Amino acid sequence: MSQNKFILIDGSSMLVTNYYGNLPKALLFEKDPEKKEKLFSQIMHNDEGQYTNAMYGMLRTILKIIDEQKPTHMMFAFDMTRDTFRREKYADYKGNRGETPEPLKEQFENMEKLLEDMGFQVMYDMKYEADDIVGSVVSKFEKEIPSYIITKDHDYLQLVSDYTRVWLIQTKQETADELQAKYSTEYGWNSKMVKIPDKAFEVTPPLCLSEYGVKPCQIPDLKGIQGDSSDNIPGVKGVSSAAMPLLAEYGTVEGIYEAIDSCDGDAKKLKELAAYWKEKLGISRSPMKALNEYRDMAFLSKDLAMIRRDYDFQKELDDFKININVDKAKEQFEKYGFKSLMEKINA
């Protein structure tokens, strides 16, 4: 078992990161939509005019991960649409995000097909998001094989367990190095003994609590109170700083409201509870009014942040074994002009 390794990749996260990371600077900083479109021709593309900057960067990353990590199993999950079940629950979910640029949208479809042609398991769904798919797959197999999730998305931290690690990608390598150095002595991490992907910080259950202030299972509760601006999850307004001490005391959003409800609306008891929060939990500004006012939003926000693990997929662990079709890979690399990657596929 110890020789096997399952790497699950948030394909959407990795492709988007490589798209913006490999854009010409003039395009990256241009704000005007019309001027942006005129600069699209500067984006890396093949002889047929198909955009390739994100695909090339992502493939280079994948091949390096395979070479260094020697995984036996691998899969990719992609988002297909923002109109998932979460938007049915909350119409403004991810409503703050702009349209996906055409050069990136095109590469999503081409990247998914390329990976499938290479022989990888590529999964996506109209109702579920990539993190739900990864959550469902890893929950089914994590006790059979050590599992590692690669993503930039903090939502995935709730999947961290004794069997599953999240390799959380940081914006800069220096940040990842600082985080690893911060915990290396306490948790015995050594870069010479454990090689992890570039810019990644390996999150374990104790590291999640130490660095992010909550246990993995409490990530949805934290977002239930604090919200998440990247996904337009509202949370409870004005209670952000009180979230961690409240969760440390009560464990869950439900536990917090049970404490409030145990006061039965009695003003004296509520005042005593607020005083306890101030004296024992260090919450200087009482969040009581906001918690009561936005109760429904707290539960909705937690639900929106909860990764589902019930995505129905008909695959067994062996289906995820890495078995690259070298001929098809070379054919695709030739098509997109990835000649520098040819020799890496032979390794």
Automatic annotation (TrEMBL):
SMART domains: 53EXOc, HhH2. It comes from the Bacteria. One of its GO terms (molecular function) is 5'-flap endonuclease activity. GO terms for biological process: DNA replication, Okazaki fragment processing. Pfam families: 5_3_exonuc (PF01367), 5_3_exonuc_N (PF02739). Residues 4-323 form the 5'-3' exonuclease domain. Keywords: DNA-binding, Hydrolase, Nuclease. 5'-3' exonuclease acting preferentially on double-stranded DNA. This is 5'-3' exonuclease. The lineage of its organism: Bacteria, Bacillati, Bacillota, Clostridia, Lachnospirales.
